[in-house]
Write a structure and sequence with these properties.
This protein is α/β, with parallel strands linked by helices. The protein folds into two domains: 36-276, HUPs (Rossmann fold, 3-Layer(aba) Sandwich); 292-379, no CATH class. The protein has 13 helices and 13 strands. It has helices at 34-51, 69-84, 104-117, 127-131, 135-142, 147-166, 177-189, 193-196, 222-231, 247-262, 266-276, 317-321, 341-352; strands spanning 23-24, 31-32, 60-64, 90-97, 122-126, 170-172, 203-204, 212-214, 294-296, 305-307, 313-315, 355-364, 367-373. α2 crosses α9 (222-231), α7 (177-189) crosses α10 (247-262) and α7 crosses α11. The longest helix is centred in the middle third of the chain and has 20 residues, at 147-166. It binds adenosine-5'-triphosphate. Residues 327-357 form the Cytoplasmic tRNA 2-thiolation protein 1 C-terminal domain.
Length: 379
C-alpha cells in the first residue's frame, strides 16, 4: 500500500479546537491534528484490549511479526500501551520465514531492526526447518494458484510451534478491521456458512489447543494504521507478497474498497453484522462442490486432497470429520483429525515432487550425471 498523501484540511482540529487539523480521519472523516489522531487511535485499541480482556498481568505474548505495516504498528503500539497502562505483559516478536526469496528475506531484515527499536526478543522459525519445504519450492511444485492455501495452513501451525518453542500460548496478530470485513464478505459471497460464524471473533482457540490467537486491531482501519506508521515514521516493509493474494480475497478486497469510498463506516457495519450472525448447523453435502474437482491421491486413501475449480485446495471430508485423538499421527501437532492439515498438504506435495538424484559415479565429460525420476507422471 502506498504512503497516504496528507489531506488538505484548512480548519482547526475537531477534538482539541486549538491545533490545525492535518487529516480527515478515514474511519469517520473527522478533521484532526496529529496529536489528537494519535490519542484516539491508541485509545481505541486500548479500549478493545480492555473490553475483550485480551491480556492479564504476567502474560507472555508473542507478536506475529512479518515486518509489514500491521504487525510493525502492532508491536509499536503494544509496547506503548503496555508501558502507559501497566498491562504487565511480556512481549516477544515471533516471525515465520516462509522461504520466499526477494520478499520474506527483506521483510525479516525489517523485523530484526524492529527487535532493536522496540527492545523485544525475536524468535524466527522457518518452513524449511519445520516442513523441509520453502514456499518457493511449494509454488514450483504445486503452482501459484494454491499458494495462499498452503501458506495459510503452514503458517498457522508454524506460529503455534514457534510459540511453543518460546513457552508462550498467546499469539497476537495484526489482522485489522479491513481484513475482518473482507473475510465476512468473502465467506458470505461463497456461502461458507461455517466460517462466516467465526469471521469476526477477536480471540480464537481450537478445541484442545493451548494456543490462543487474538486480534487487537479488529476495529482498526487499515488506512489509519498506514497513517499512524507514516506520521510516527515507523520502520516497516511495504512490498506485497511475491505470490498473488488469494484470488477471491482480492475480489472481496476490491469490493470493500469500492464500498468504503462511498461509505467509510461500511467496514465497521460489516463487522457488526458479522458479529450478529447466528449460524445454523451445517447441512451435509453429498457431492463434490465443483464438477471439475481433481483428486490428488497420496498412496494412502485417507490422505486425499482436492484442487477445486477455483484453484483452492480442500481436504477430503473423511479427514475433516475424523475426531478420534487430538494429535496428528504423523507429526504430533494438535488436531481434531487423524492427520493434521499441514501433513495432508505436505504428503500431497511429496507425492508430486519430482525425485532428483545426482549420480556421482558416472562422470560424463567431467560433469555429474543428473538422473530424474518423475513419479506418477506419464507422457
Ligand atoms: N511471516 C509471518 N511471521 C509472523 N507473523 C505473520 C507472518 N505473516 C503474517 N503474520 C501475522 O498475520 C497478520 C496478517 O498477515 P497478512 O498476511 O494478512 O499480512 P498483512 O495484512 O500485510 O499484515 P502485515 O502488514 O503485518 O504484514 C500479520 O499482521 C502478522 O501479525
Amino acid at each position: 500500500m502506498s504512503t497516504p498523501k496528507p489531506v488538505k484540511v484548512s480548519a482547526l482540529c475537531e477534538l482539541c479546537h486549538g491545533r490545525k487539523a492535518v487529516m480527515k480521519r478515514p474511519k469517520n472523516l473527522q478533521k484532526l491534528c496529529k496529536e489528537c489522531f494519535y490519542h484516539v487511535f491508541e485509545t481505541e485499541i486500548h479500549n478493545t484490549i480492555v473490553a475483550n480482556s485480551l491480556f492479564a498481568p504476567g502474560d507472555r505474548v508473542a507478536i506475529g511479526a512479518s515486518g509489514g505495516k500491521d504487525s510493525t504498528v502492532l508491536a509499536s503500539i503494544l509496547k506503548t500501551l503496555n508501558e502507559r497502562y501497566n498491562y504487565g505483559v511480556e512481549l516477544v516478536l515471533l516471525s515465520i520465514d516462509e522461504g520466499i526469496k526477494g520478499y520474506r528475506d527483506d521483510s525479516l531484515a525489517t523485523v530484526k531492526r524492529n527487535q532493536v527499536q522496540y527492545d523485544m526478543p525475536l524468535e524466527i522459525v522457518s518452513y524449511k526447518d519445520l516442513y523441509s519445504w520453502t514456499m518457493d519450492e511449494i509454488v514450483s511444485c504445486a503452482g501459484i494458484r494454491s499458494s495462499c492455501t498452503y501458506c495459510g495452513v503452514l503458517r498457522r501451525q508454524a506460529l503455534d510451534r514457534g510459540a511453543a518453542k518460546l513457552g508462550i500460548n498467546h499469539v497476537v496478530t495484526g489482522h485489522n478491521a479491513d481484513d475482518m470485513a473482507e473475510t465476512v464478505l468473502m465467506n458470505l459471497l461463497r456461502g461458507d456458512v461455517a466460517r462466516l460464524g467465526k469471521s469476526c471473533e477477536i480471540s480464537t482457540q481450537s478445541e484442545g489447543s493451548p494456543f490462543k490467537r487474538t486480534k487487537p486491531f479488529k476495529y482498526t482501519y487499515q488506512k489509519e494504521i498506514v497513517l499512524y506508521a507514516h506520521y510516527k515514521k515507523l520502520d516497516y516493509f511495504s512490498t506485497e507478497c511475491t505470490y498473488a493474494p488469494e484470488a477471491f480475497r482480492g475480489t472481496a478486497r476490491e469490493l470493500l474498497k469500492a464500498l468504503e469510498a462511498i461509505r467509510p463506516s461500511c467496514i465497521m457495519d460489516i463487522i457488526y453484522s458479522g458479529e450478529q450472525f447466528c449460524v445454523a448447523p451445517k447441512p451435509k453435502r453429498a457431492t463434490p462442490k465443483y464438477k471439475n474437482a481433481k483428486k490428488i491421491q497420496n498412496g494412502d486413501n485417507d490422505n486425499e486432497q482436492e484442487i477445486n475449480g477455483d484453484g483452492s485446495v480442500s481436504l477430503k471430508k473423511k479427514l475433516e470429520s475424523a475426531t478420534d485423538g487430538h494429535r496428528c499421527e504423523k507429526c504430533g501437532y494438535l488436531t481434531m483429525n487423524r492427520i493434521c492439515k499441514a501433513c495432508v498438504l505436505l504428503a500431497g506435495l511429496e507425492a508430486s515432487r519430482p525425485k532428483v538424484t545426482i549420480d556421482n559415479n558416472v562422470a560424463v565429460d567431467g560433469a555429474a550425471k543428473l538422473s530424474k525420476t518423475l513419479e506418477q507422471l506419464s507422457f
